[in-house]
Amino acid sequence: MSELIEFIHFGEVLIEVVMALGPLLLFFAIFQVFFLKLPGSYVVNLLKGVAFSFLGLVLFLQGVKVGFLPAGASMGEILGAWNQKWVLIIIGFVFGFVATIAEPAVRILSFEVEKSSNGAIRGRVIMITLALGVAVFVALGMVRIIHGIPIHYLLIPGYVIALIMLKFTDPTFIAIAFDAGGVATGPMTVTFVMAMAVGIATVMEHRSPIVDGFGLIALVALAPILSVMGFGLVYSARKGK
Amino acid sequence: MKATWYKSSRRVASRGWNALALLWPPTISLACNMHEMRLRRPAQELSLAEAELAAIDAALNSRARKIYMGSGLWEDLLEVVQAVMPITLVVVLLQVTVISMPLVTFLRFLIGALMVMLGLLLFLRGVKTGLLPIGEIIGAELPKRGSLSFILLVAFFLGLVVTIAEPDVRVLAHQADLVSGGRIGKTVLVLTVALGVGIFVCLAMLRIIVGIPIAWLFAGGYLTILVLSFFTSPDFVPISFDAGGVTTGPVTVPFILALGIGTATVLGGRSSLDNSFGLVGLASIGPVLGVMILGMIYK
């Protein structure tokens, strides 16, 4: 049970978050001194927010790293040894969905979309569309690992379809869709889902954990581009009627 | 006046402003005021008058309060539970039925789920009152400075610095080091990815200002990626796609998102919603291209 104490070792995560937040704060400080000159009380409020997000992110990342990562890897190894491989596809779908729902940046994007569109585009709808896209593509990623399909066979047609869809989709949804592609590859999906994929690839024969595991991120980044643009097409068509 | 580049869009913009101002009074009218102020005042005059400052302070504060109260602690708590519960329940369900992972691993997962929930709660509240307003204020301030080269320079440096600071980029650099058998040093890769982000954040800002259709940029970017993927070393294809994903960390995303929204609301032109998004997506094309080109050089 001494392994449970590992949660206390926050050091590495702490440095990561400080390094990521540091430059932004420095940037804000330069802007504040030379250009913005915002009143002190307001700056204090902003900094309180930054402190909250700092603490929150440290807790979140540490929880994912020490709690979710080993669980994902362990589950992957157990699942990879099963004989009924098709179960992996269903499990990939389910975890693709639930991991995306728990992704912090996905929440922020949905929040900003709803706010900027004055509620015309519901944040929740964007989030679910995004998560469904990721779910389908993680399932496809599982098919790929089981049958050893090269990653090009999925990525190239995927991006060609995306290019074709660009011609028909409303610019707002194009922008949101590609942002969603960047947002979906956050700490929860990358760590948990990838740990599972690597675990599965490790126990299966003739599979390289590096190639099969890592290719999954590229699929997760492509998925929301297609699903959100698809949603945009439906949305515009309904609005047109 | 130095800034002539936005004049053509000004006329179109002011029409949009009035419509938007009806929908979202505090921020938009603030944005309108800043927009007008910029046109009347010489660009050299940096400090704001007392009254203007107080007005901005009031507007910003009421905005922050609105967001804060709009999603109170109870709603945030509910959102976080809705976010983390599904994944937790699926793992628990699998654990009790078919998978039996070691008990320690399972207990650690449960503690981890609690930490993730508490962390997400703090993070979401913090981002909404800290990082998002900071990004939007800076984004709204940039066009006020007048000169196009200043905006582009700031955008470039911001992309560059934020990427160098991103922890995931170092993990990627390690991967590339491994795949290339040590031929591609970590510094070279980190710099390539950072330059890629810098150049594309710059392009994204230019797009908002000049009004290039976003579909062209994405089509051009991804067509180039598709073509390059046939010429680069096959080992580099997965790494280069990963490079596009790693630069969009949970700190970078809210900030870059807000930056684009801030800039777009101040000078967006036709429709500020069209221009508000896309910065994160465009920023992730740069590193993919950069790493693919690296793969071609080191082939």
How would you describe the overall organization of this protein?
The complex is a heterodimer of chains A (241) and B (299). Chain A is mostly helical. Chain A has 2 domains: 1-66, no CATH class; 81-240, no CATH class. Helix content of chain A is 83%, strand content 0%. The longest helix of chain A is centred in the N-terminal third of the chain and has 41 residues, at 40-80. The radius of gyration of chain A is 20 Å and the shape is flat. Chain B folds into 3 domains: 1-70, no CATH class; 75-134; 145-299, no CATH class. In chain B, helix 3 (50-70) packs antiparallel against helix 5, helix 7 (167-179) crosses helix 8 (186-210) and helix 8 (186-210) packs across helix 14 (285-297). The termini of chain B are far apart. In chain B, 48% of the residues are buried. The model of chain B is unreliable at 1-49 and 64-70 (pLDDT under 50). At the A-B interface, helix 1, helix 2, helix 3, helix 4 and helix 6 of A face helix 3, helix 4, helix 5, helix 6 and helix 9 of B.
Give the DSSP E fraction of chain A (strand runs of 2 or more residues): under 5%
What sequence of helices (H) and strands (E) makes up the elements of chain B?
Answer: HHHHHHHHHHHHHH
Spell out the helices and strands of chain A N to C.
HHHHHHHHH
Label the overall shape of chain B: globular
What is the radius of gyration of chain B?
23 Å
Observed structural traits:
heterodimer, A: about 240 residues, mainly alpha, 2 domains, 9 helices, B: about 300 residues, about 80% helix, about 0% strand, globular, disordered N terminus
Provide a brief overview of the structure.
The complex is a heterodimer of chains A (241) and B (299). By secondary structure, chain A is mostly helical. Chain A is 83% helix and 0% strand.
